[in-house]
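Following up on my earlier thread - several people asked me to post the actual chain instead of describing it. Fair enough. Here it is, all 293 residues.
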Amino acid sequence: MDKCIGIVGLGRMGSSMARWLQSKGYRIVVWDRTPGKMKLIRGAEPADSPRSVAEKCGEVHIAVSDDEASRSVLRGSRGIFRAKRRDLLVVNHSTVTPMHSLEASSYAYNELGADYLEAPVIGGPKEARIGKLLILAGGPRKTYERAWNVLNDMAREVVYLGDIPTASIIKLAINSMFFVSAQVLSESIALVKSWGIDPSVFADIASKTWLKPIIDHYYERILGPETPVGFTLRLATKDLLYAELSGYAKDTPLPLITMTMQTYMNAVRAGYAEHDYSRVGTYIMEKHLDEEQ
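Reply from S.P.:
Thanks for posting it. Predicted structure:
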């Protein structure tokens, strides 16, 4: 296979995607603002800018951290949208606000005549390394069909959701449920501990109810040794903020998400920014113990 795929953004997700697509036989061209990260993708061709990636490969996949980074790699002075080619397809896997998705897609279609697909993912680097992501796709069907073969190679399932920004909104809603669940379980553990009850007793009883999947997923991550980082607490805070802003854009208050975001933000300030988001439990336990003392 000689199909060229560009990857812009080589954090945990982007680098995992690049290595998996290499293993599937794609020719990979990469760019990251930290040049050293490009050298770690052996066999990939480094580019000197996002624009250069797009000029080398007609299909470019983006995996960056937020709206600002996405806007920069798309529309910056050396951005993807500056490339001089008519067959451009941009697939954005970044978790961004729906407002940014609408802005980026409108510019791509109306100003450039380029194809743009929002394609946020459910799953972390571990799933990306073995092609088992759940990918949510939004955009014109013809664009989705053009991108489908590569997306299918990256995913256990690709769900087409129609118009932009449906996929971005659903991704923020799902992530919000993840992060709120981690916090409420942490607070519940803190509650039983404050009354001298072994948390394992609480977990055993809760597992006999429909709460079992939450206990199975988070209990050891909250109380056990720190696991490898799948998704940082800093990025979780950003996603909660983006959910809040998305609600604000539609005059929809989201009080629980807003309060959860504040806890996560406080945990970031307390030094947990680059830890896995499940470490919000450690922050809550420490805060609880501090208050007891």
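Residues 4-164 form a domain with the Rossmann fold fold (CATH 3.40.50.720). That should answer part of your original question.
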